[in-house]
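Memo to structure team: turn this sequence into structure tokens by end of day. - J.P.
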Amino acid sequence: MFARSGKGNFSYTSARVKAKKSKLLKEEDYNKLLMMSVPEMSQYISEAGYSKEMADYAGRYSGLTLLEYATYANMSKAFRSILKSSTGELSNMVDAYLAKWDFENFKSILRGKKYGLSADQIREDMVPAGNLSAEDLEKLIAANTPEDALAQFAKKTNITVPDDAVTALKENNNLQPIEDAMVKSYYRKLLASISKQDRPTDIFRTYIKDCIDIKNVETVMKFKADRISGDTVAQFWIPGGAEIDEKVMAQIAAAPDVKSALNEMQNLRMYADIKDELSDDSSILDVVAAMARYKAKLANKVGHMYPLSVIPVVDYMIHKENEVRNIRMIAHGTDSGLDRETMKGLLVI
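Reply from structure team:
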């Protein structure tokens, strides 16, 4: 990733993303999708902005698979277009933010290789919305071993993977230390990219710190759902958050279950925003959806405060991610017979 000098074309890019955000699906669109079959959903989203991608993949895929490929391809195109057109400091921050897709794609590649999936099966989960091109991802998929793929990825993204994580991969085929190292590297680099000192950028930095807290909470809750607690969970703490330091992470991690972990969060700012959405019998999916809505609410709030900054750009990308997530969740839920009220409760709007 190369640094780009200059302030950046904030005004132009903000205008572009404002126009894009106005075209995203609304609550009434999701209410209609909830009443449709998967083929009907495909037709509906095709008419709502996904027509090119639906047409591009229609010759090779159908049904749920077609919808998945088309939505990811549309999102990837939108994000890469923003990155390509942005300049200067704005481009550096967008570049660093979108790197998360490089890490997510690489995790999918490692998992695919671990479980013996074919190249085509691994390719299904790729979202080339980051800095790595589709060609870069193909080379990683084609690597002979997970270790070879890791060496290529580390060189391409300029990350350093701890020796013990590499050893765990080689000797035990354990991916967790690698994935932990990658997510920590991502947030460390993202915070480092926010170097300018002014009010909008400081607010963006605070927002990313809040995102780190959200990620830490999601990590704890997923472990809680599996009844795992204590030091095993605390070691996955991501530094750099606004409120969750090692001590707070350890306290939440020590809780025996999801309900108890939520009780340990009562002193955090985010708790006030999510508590009314949750109950004693809330599932991990309910918690993750509530956290996603909280994250989107934060981005929307600060985006309105400083419209000529990086914040509206990230705000749009978060809402676009949520749109694709919502579409795919409804499609999968409908395909598996999930009831509409449950799906509606998982929507992030």
